[in-house]
UniProtKB/TrEMBL annotation:
Keywords noted in UniProt: Cell membrane, Disulfide bond, G-protein coupled receptor, Glycoprotein, Membrane, Olfaction, Receptor, Sensory transduction, Transducer, Transmembrane, Transmembrane helix
Annotated organism of origin: Lates calcarifer (Barramundi)
Domain G-protein coupled receptors family 1 profile, first and last residues per copy: 41-291
This protein's name: G-protein coupled receptors family 1 profile domain-containing protein
Lineage start: Eukaryota, Metazoa, Chordata, Craniata, Vertebrata
Localization per record: Cell membrane
InterPro entries: GPCR1_Superfamily_Member (IPR052921), GPCR_Rhodpsn (IPR000276), GPCR_Rhodpsn_7TM (IPR017452), Olfact_rcpt (IPR000725)
Topological relation to the membrane, as annotated: Multi-pass membrane protein
Spans traversing the lipid bilayer: 25-48, 60-86, 98-120, 141-164, 196-218, 270-290
Gene Ontology molecular-function annotations: G protein-coupled receptor activity; odorant binding; olfactory receptor activity
One GO location term (cellular component): plasma membrane
Cell membrane is among the record's keywords: yes
Length: 304
């Protein structure tokens, strides 16, 4: 069996694409429209938050970071996807494949960590309202945002570097885009280090953040049940959109994780492709809406 370093492979073939005939132009138009809507929704909210000093509060700054990440993740996927839909040969160069792996995995990591920070912010605001301003200072907000992005960047640099050094025994990926696990599955060299780092990365970037988020929301729920009606209304108006965003994104990631780990050959290619794209397409479109509750929206309009 041929063994080669990933740097010696010139291209990778994406085998999950299927023949759509003339419908490929319809799919192209639908995805183009979806990408435009994502850009417009997220950019609009970023501009609104940045242009209004009254919105320069922790909650909105964390939302701004979330929207920037969704633009980043979408840009790492959609232009590539649109080119592949119009192409008859679904191949990608190795350097670009690893660039996409870096972008998409960093998007996933930043998204989870950003949701952790947002849940912590709501926890302080609802459970410790009198101490909120002293605990969530502008300096701390900036530090949390910087740490979220910097940690994600360094973690993914290590992840992609480990995969790039693997010896590969093939160049066919059963996906419509590049993911790290797809490269690892092609390896015929020892992947122990990759697997260990993958477990550590999953724990730090997904499991611990999810546990932290659920812990903070359990605390918030406890306070709501024992607090006043005003406290409950505040919790519902600010926490419900974040919880829906979390569940929406987590569901998509969970489906993708299951697809990577189990044999999905019995599932139609179109359905598999749709499920794979879910966590990369729908959260960036719906999160700008879900993250702004009616109370927050009214406040923003009033600020304008």
């Amino acid at each position: 069996m041929l063994r080669m370093n990933s740097s010696q492979v010139s291209y990778l073939t994406l085998s999950a694409y299927f023949e759509t005939g003339p419908f490929k132009y319809l799919f192209f138009m639908i995805l183009t429209l979806l990408y435009i809507l994502i850009i417009c929704a997220n950019v609009s909210l970023i501009v609104i938050i940045c242009m209004n000093r009254s919105l320069h509060e922790p909650m909105y700054l964390f939302l701004c970071s979330l929207f920037v990440n969704e633009l980043y993740g979408s840009t790492g996927l959609f232009p590539f996807l649109l080119l592949q839909i119009l192409s008859d040969i679904h191949t990608v160069s190795v350097p670009f494949c690893f660039l996409q792996i870096f972008c998409l995995h960093m998007y996933l990591t930043v998204q989870f960590l950003n949701l952790v920070v947002m849940s912590y912010d709501r926890y302080l605001a609802i459970c410790y309202p009198l101490q909120y301003n002293t605990r969530m200072t502008t300096k701390r907000v900036a530090m949390l945002i910087v740490v979220t992005w910097l940690f994600s960047f360094l973690a993914i640099v290590v992840l992609t570097s480990l995969s790039f050094s693997l010896q590969l025994c093939g160049n066919i990926i059963d996906k419509v885009f590049c993911l790290n696990y797809s490269i690892v599955k092609l390896a015929c060299s020892d992947t122990s280090v990759n697997n260990i780092y993958g477990l550590i990365f999953t724990a730090i970037a997904i499991i611990i953040p999810l546990s932290s988020i659920f812990y903070t929301y359990i605390k918030i729920i406890n306070v709501c049940f024992s607090g006043s009606k005003q406290t409950r209304q505040k919790a519902v108006s600010t926490c419900t959109p974040q919880l829906v965003s979390l569940l929406n994104f987590s569901l998509g990631v969970c489906v993708e994780f299951l697809q990577n780990r189990f044999d999905m050959s019995s599932v139609p290619k179109m359905l598999r492709s749709f499920l794979s794209l879910y966590f990369l397409t729908f959260p960036p479109l719906f999160n700008p809406v879900l993250s702004i509750s009616k109370a927050q929206y009214d406040y923003m309009i009033h600020a304008l």
